[in-house]
From TrEMBL:
GO BP term, pick one: regulation of DNA-templated transcription
Gene3D superfamilies noted in UniProt: Winged helix-like DNA-binding domain superfamily/Winged helix DNA-binding domain (1.10.10.10)
Keyword annotations: Paired box
Paired domain sequence ranges: 1-112
PROSITE patterns in alphabetical order: PAIRED_2
Domain of life of the organism encoding this protein: Bacteria
Protein name: Transposase
Single GO molecular function: DNA binding
The organism of origin for this protein: Methylobacterium platani
Amino acid sequence: MGECYSLDLRERITRFVEEGHSRREAARRFAVSASCAVKLAQRQARTGSVAPARQGRPKGGGKLAPVADFLIAAVEATPDITLPELAETLLAERGVTVTPGALSRFLCQRGFTYKKSPDGRRARTRAHP
């Protein structure tokens, strides 16, 4: 993902446009693309600020956040449950469709690991810091 232009440069470009120069002229003078100068002027008019917007996905738990307690309880009750089985249980009991990969990421973020035991069985356990 690219870096944002500095706030100082953004302010100089919009100030140059506000002084009566064209947006394309501002782009040439400050060595940025014409679309950058146009979008900065639009942003200034729309929001009153040229500060960059936050990048990336918004914070939140996604569709698994409301069923987090259910998932954690299911894994703790049956540590050797497979992810496809967990996905089926979630669909049957809560009506939420999810892929095993999404369940794996969700559980890993909450400290669960997938380990083999000495007897060859596998189980999800919570990692202790």
